[in-house]
Design brief:
Helix content is 23%, strand content 22%. It has 197 residues and is of the alpha/beta class. The chain has a single domain, classed as P-loop containing nucleotide triphosphate hydrolases (Rossmann fold, 3-Layer(aba) Sandwich), CATH 3.40.50. Pfam families: ABC_tran (PF00005).
């Protein structure tokens, strides 16, 4: 269910209405995409690799411009706890929860690590191939009542998704791959880890 309405959004909410976005030379990633994240929410952004989570965060952060948009006061997190140990991860999540509750700020957190998030998150948005499949309050997620944890719920969605045929791009223009002498190296850096020489 995509939340919406005609009420003007507060400065701490996120409202996307009928957004369209495509990378150059690619088919649309988002077509008529709608999302409403209420102020004060801690919304988990979930989906398989390549579903559009990071692209959506980049659009919200203004790294990809999509027409006119208002500046919103939110915290956008993309896999920020992946390199943290359990104690540091829980301390960071507790700090973010406290800040959210005290200041009424809004957080959108894309992650594949779900340990302990059942009590941290207030909302969940599930993206599949650039399409918003579900968005709802975590407390109203009926699968969570019958599954052991949030990981089990998301795993069942992703396994079901993997069984269905993926969208096949039509007439895409192949982008030349940039080569690097480090392409074959096991020490190639990622967005999470930087290697120093």
């Amino acid at each position: 269910m995509v939340e919406g309405g005609n009420d003007p959004p507060s400065s701490n909410s996120i409202v996307i209405r009928t957004m369209n976005f495509a990378y150059p030379g690619q088919p649309p990633l988002f077509a008529n995409f709608n999302l409403h994240v209420a102020p004060g929410s801690r919304c988990l952004l979930v989906g398989a690799n390549g579903s559009g989570k990071t692209s959506l965060l980049k659009i919200l952060a203004g790294k990809h411009m999509v027409g006119g948009r208002d500046v919103v006061q939110v915290l956008l997190l993309d896999e920020v706890t992946v390199d943290l140990d359990v104690v540091a991860r829980m301390d960071l999540l507790d700090f973010l929860k406290e800040e959210c509750e005290q200041r009424g700020s809004t957080i959108v957190y894309a992650t594949h690590i779900f340990d302990g998030l059942e009590t941290w998150a207030t909302h969940l948005a599930y993206i599949q191939d650039g399409e918003l499949k579900r968005t709802e309050k975590l407390s109203e997620l009926h699968e969570l009542k019958s599954c052991a944890n949030l990981l089990s719920v998301v795993e069942s969605w992703l396994r079901s998704e993997a069984k269905t045929e993926k969208k096949k791009p039509a007439n895409t223009i192949a982008q030349p791959k940039k080569s690097s002498p480090f392409d074959a190296s096991p020490f190639r850096s990622s967005r999470h880890i930087a290697y120093y020489r």
